[in-house]
Write a structure and sequence with these properties.
The chain is mainly α and about 750 residues long. About 70% of the residues lie in helices and about 5% in strands. The chain is built from 32 helices and seven strands. The strands form three sheets. Strands 5-7-6 form a three-stranded antiparallel sheet, with no helix packed on it. Strand 1 and strand 2 form a beta hairpin. Helix 2 runs antiparallel to helix 4. The two termini are about 30 Å apart.
């Protein structure tokens, strides 16, 4: 074996000698075969009519082939399962010699389980299995590489700058008789790294802490403690000065109580500032553990475990295939969990120079070591991904993961201390030294990080909508969702009034603004403007020019400029007489107007006597009849031309759906503009309790009544259905974030 061989080189050589290459090639080939069968089955199912499926005593050629494909699929799945079991046995045998392979297998299992949980957000058992699996993975890392590691003892041993300097110098190691502290992790071509005891890890981490921002962030601890103690003393004195009767009176606002409230606010602000500084220091402490790469992997696993425990089912409002607004089940914060698991996989690859089992099998099959292509859905989202990467999304994600990392460390630390509060507290990273006895500090920290993670997750989801503004199809989807939501909320006053009032229509202006944004996007992105007749005239005058409109970077058709759109439609109509007929239509319309005008002028010159005299015709009467006859003939010609144009043009436009959506918008605008509310009153008599009608009095009650909502809802629903049919299914915001998180770490090749 070459002395420069890596752990992966040795492992692959071992697997080849045990005969793993043959099953790997067969497994990969069977995977391609299964994909081909799945595609063929989908195509056949699309070609088989419903009637042929109902008639069970005869088979069409497609049905016969579909049954054959099902049999071949079943056989291929059985063969692949058998080969998969053989590969699993070979890899399990390799794990005994190469322990990092066991870690890689567990990481890959966690990735697969996370993907399954995100597809089924309500699967509580799957979520519990994922969290338990990550916990066991963290335990395995410690057992293999740092068997006596204790975060609590680490923090205690590095409690201040001077102690950290002593540890970095290796004084403790020298005191035990060691010649000098370890210079760094010891590489092992079978285990990746030689295991390290806590005493040997201490100098490595201490040196990393001294080079990092930890102690700079903790500067002024004593001063902060004095400030907090002073506030506490002032608060106690202010509390003692409040009279007992003011304490009993909930409405009291005496000067003493105002002073107490002010001091409480100042104390809370001071605590918040210090806690934020300490949490940033805690993040720096956790990063310093990466001086020993297996411990860095352990921290990443704890981060993913905290997010797995926080995973919960939720809902998201999305458009279905018919343009209706429905609640879709999602797992929150699923994208953050994927990003954390991506970090685990990436850290493992970097630390051990070893691929996960799926890629190892592909390498054995001769398919190379480079990760596979990202899935097609992610490639189609490339413009949106670029906007997310260039915006605030990476920062929001990284801050959320940092909170999850600290939360995971707190959780592991509490477990290490038996769940006790004393075990969870650290002298180095206490929030405020003077206040550690006031609250359950670890629980408060956990709640703080959970709340901040939720807030950052919400901001990340909102960031998708902001990034979608530069991707026309997705921006139109977001506005359509808003349109459906707003039209359902349209309402007016529901109270009863004793006099007429001016009734308002809630959300009408927001609806009109949303429709205007949709119209503007269709105009700017898809080359549309004006009324349909103007588009026809531009197409009739344009030179035919083919254009590629499929293969849009996101969804739907590729946006065209006005000139490109006109040339494309002219190309689509080239086999018809559209241009000739439309130009003749325009000329005929102008001639008809001149004929009608000539007839009107001639009619004005005919006197009443000439009208009554049926035995003679004047020149003006003959001119009038001729012009009206010519106008009637031109009307028939125009009607025939319009029929042809209205047949050819929509057929050509059908391949470019934004045209229909654009020219249907005025109907929706008209329906929304027609929303109004009127105040209607009713009169009735109030009879006294005794029932004497002589004492009754007349009164009025006025209510606001909404008019036109049903028509507006129908118009919006029709337009939304057309939009859904035109652009097809689109990923939700949560799915976009999941794809972004996967693509950011190259999970598409796993």
């Amino acid at each position: 074996m070459d002395s420069t061989a890596t752990l992966q080189d040795r492992l692959l050589a071992w697997l080849r000698t045990t005969g793993c290459a043959g099953p790997a090639r067969e497994f990969t080939a069977l995977g391609r075969e299964l994909d081909a069968f799945e595609r063929e089955r989908a195509e056949l199912r699309g070609r088989i009519p419903l009637w042929d499926r109902v008639i069970f005593f005869s088979d069409t050629p497609d049905e016969a082939r579909a049954k054959e494909v099902e049999r071949e699929l079943t056989a291929a799945r059985r063969r692949r399962s058998a080969v998969e079991r053989e590969l699993a046995d070979l890899l399990a045998a390799a794990e005994k010699t190469y322990p990092p392979l066991a870690l890689a297998r567990r990481i890959e299992t966690a990735l697969a389980l996370a993907a399954a949980v995100l597809r089924a957000p309500g699967d509580s058992r799957g979520r519990a299995r994922l969290a338990a699996g990550l916990h066991a993975l963290g335990d395995q890392v410690l057992a293999d590489y740092a068997p006596d590691f204790s975060a609590r003892r680490f923090e205690a041993q590095l409690s201040d700058l001077e102690t950290c300097r002593v540890a970095a110098a290796g004084a403790a190691a020298v005191a035990r008789g060691a010649a000098e502290p370890a210079a760094g992790p010891v590489l092992d071509l079978e285990r990746g790294y030689a295991p390290m005891r806590q005493a040997d890890l201490l100098p490595l981490v201490a040196r990393r802490l001294l080079d990092g921002p930890l102690f700079e962030r903790l500067a002024g601890r004593a001063e902060w403690a004095q400030v907090c103690n002073r506030f506490l003393d002032d608060l106690r004195r202010a509390e003692a000065q409040i009279p007992w009767y003011d304490r009993l009176n909930p409405l009291s606002d005496s000067p003493a109580e105002q002073e107490r409230d002010r001091l409480e606010q100042e104390l809370a602000r001071t605590e918040a500032e210090w806690s934020a500084r300490v949490e940033r220091a805690r993040a720096a402490f956790l990063e310093a553990l990466g001086a020993f790469p297996p411990l860095g992997l352990y921290v990443r696993i704890a981060e993913a475990g905290a997010l797995a425990e926080a995973l919960a089912p939720g809902t998201e409002r999305v458009l279905d295939g018919r343009g209706r607004l429905v609640n879709a089940s999602v797992a929150t914060p699923g994208a953050l969990l994927l990003a954390a698991l991506s970090g685990v996989a990436a850290h493992f690859r970097a630390a051990f120079a070893l691929e996960l089992p799926g890629r190892l099998v592909a390498i054995l099959a001769g398919e190379g070591a480079s990760p596979g292509n990202a899935e097609p859905e992610l490639r189609r989202l490339a413009p949106l991904v670029a906007r997310l990467d260039a915006g605030a999304a990476p920062g929001l994600r990284d801050r959320a993961l940092e909170h999850a990392r600290v939360s995971g460390a707190i959780r592991r630390c509490r477990q290490e201390g038996g769940g006790s509060e004393a075990g969870a507290r650290s002298r180095l990273l206490s929030w405020v030294p003077a206040l550690t006895g006031r609250d359950r500090e670890a629980q408060a920290r956990a709640e703080l990080h959970a709340e901040r993670t939720r807030r950052l997750w919400s901001d990340l989801v909102t960031e998708v909508e902001r990034a979608a503004e530069g991707v026309p199809a997705l921006f139109l989807r977001e506005q359509t969702v808003r349109l459906r939501s707003l039209v359902a909320q349209v309402d007016t006053y529901t109270e009863v009034f004793d006099r007429p009032v001016a009734c308002s229509v809630f959300h009408r202006e927001a609806l009109l603004t949303t429709l205007q944004r949709i119209r503007q996007t269709l105009e700017e992105a898809y080359g549309l403007a004006g009324v349909e007749d103007r588009l026809m005239a531009a197409v009739a005058a344009a030179a035919p020019a083919p254009a590629e409109i499929r293969g849009d970077e996101v969804y739907g058709v590729r946006p065209l400029s006005p000139a490109a759109l006109h040339g494309f439609l002219a190309h689509r109509l080239e086999d018809t007489a559209f241009a000739t007929v439309f130009r003749r239509l325009e000329a005929a319309e102008a001639e008809r107007l001149r004929a009608e005008d000539g007839a009107e002028q001639a009619a004005a010159r005919v006197s009443l006597w000439d009208r009554l005299n049926v035995f003679s015709d004047t020149d003006d009467e003959r001119t009038e009849r001729a012009e009206r006859g010519r106008a009637a003939a031109l009307t028939r010609e125009i009607r025939d031309a319009v029929r042809k144009v209205k047949t050819w043009f929509p057929a050509a436009c059908r391949v470019y759906p934004p045209i229909e959506l654009y020219y249907r918008l005025p109907e929706v605008v008209a329906a929304v503009s027609g929303l109004r509310a009127e105040c209607t009153g009713s009169r009735f008599s109030l009879v006294p309790a005794g029932g004497d009608s002589l004492g009754s009095r007349r009164t009025e009650r006025w209510r606001c009544r909404l008019i036109g909502k049903a028509a507006a809802v129908r118009a919006v629903a029709d337009w939304s259905a057309r939009f859904a049919a035109a652009f097809g299914p689109m990923p939700s915001r949560h799915r976009i974030l999941e794809l972004w998180a996967e693509g950011g770490a190259g999970l598409g090749g796993l």
